[in-house]
Write a structure and sequence with these properties.
Blueprint: H1 3-16, H2 20-36, H3 40-66, H4 88-95, H5 98-102, E1 106-109, H6 116-129, E2 134-138, H7 139-151, H8 155-164, E3 167-173, H9 180-195, E4 199-204, H10 218-229, E5 233-236, H11 242-249
Helix pairs in contact: 2-3, 7-8, 9-10
Length: 262
């Protein structure tokens, strides 16, 4: 078989196998191989490497689209100096994503504005860029979707979407109390993820002793905590809101107005 026929045959095989990146890069790789006097194995290795890299990039892009993240916040952009209550060494350890590989959970506790959501999103972004699937929901959105799904008898679809993710981020637990069916549904999600060895991140403005205020049943709150805390990491952030601090430093806080004497 002539070189021209072999070349066309290779192109045809790459197209049939849907190796789109390899097909697009074939001429470039062959030219580089001839110029650098690469072996046949080195040329094939380079071609397949480019295909795999392109597929990984597409997977990461798709995972970002399906993640539900409201915005992109990176761990590198977190201001640890402005929020000394955040243990940087713990965040650095979490950033290694060992907790995702181990199926462990993370709980960020603290008042509003201390950086819980930023850290949770930052870890989700890190996980997606490493090739994992992540899914983000606020508790309000979870409850809203569950209510709509119950009407259509599609609650299993919500569970399946969350369960598919390697990392599930539940934001703002504690901003509203849960009624019976919503509390049970949340427990079912956390329990399924716990049993299947999948990681969950929860952010909450309530201390653990206050979680009984969120759930209608103290036993349910205890059972949910038991699953989250088993081999999990708790980051208790103490300090003031650095969002307000930045607003004050920028002169954006509303001035106090004096009330006239009675």
């Amino acid at each position: 078989m002539s070189s021209a026929a072999s070349y066309q045959r290779v192109r045809s095989h790459l197209e049939t196998l849907k190796l789109d990146a390899a097909l697009a890069e074939l001429d470039t790789v062959l030219e580089a191989g001839a110029r650098e006097e690469l072996t046949a194995v080195e040329i094939v290795d380079e071609l397949l490497d480019r295909e795999l890299r392109r597929r990984f990039e597409r997977r990461v892009k798709t995972n970002f689209k399906l993640s539900g993240l409201p915005l992109i916040k990176r761990l590198e952009d977190f201001d640890f100096d402005a929020q000394p209550g955040v243990p940087k060494h713990t965040v650095d350890e979490l950033a290694s994503l060992r907790f995702v590989n181990q199926g462990s959970s993370v709980i960020f506790l603290g008042a509003c504005g201390v950086g819980k959501t930023h850290l949770a999103i930052g870890l989700a972004v890190r996980a997606i860029e490493a090739g994992h699937r992540a899914y983000f929901l606020t508790l309000h959105d979870l409850v809203t979707r569950a209510a709509a799904a119950r009407v259509k008898h599609r609650l299993h679809a919500v569970i399946r979407t969350i369960q598919r993710a390697d990392l599930f981020v539940l934001d703002e637990l504690g901003f509203l109390p849960l009624v019976g069916e919503d509390a049970t549904f949340l427990f079912e999600i956390i329990n399924r993820r716990y049993q299947s060895g999948k990681s969950t991140i929860v952010t909450s403005n309530k201390t653990f002793s206050q979680w009984s205020e969120i759930f209608p049943d103290t036993a349910l709150a205890t059972a949910l905590l038991d699953r989250l805390l088993h081999n999990g990491t708790t980051v208790n952030i103490r300090g003031d809101s650095y969002r307000l601090k930045h607003r004050n430093e920028a002169g954006l806080a509303e001035p106090m107005t004096e009330q006239p004497d009675e």
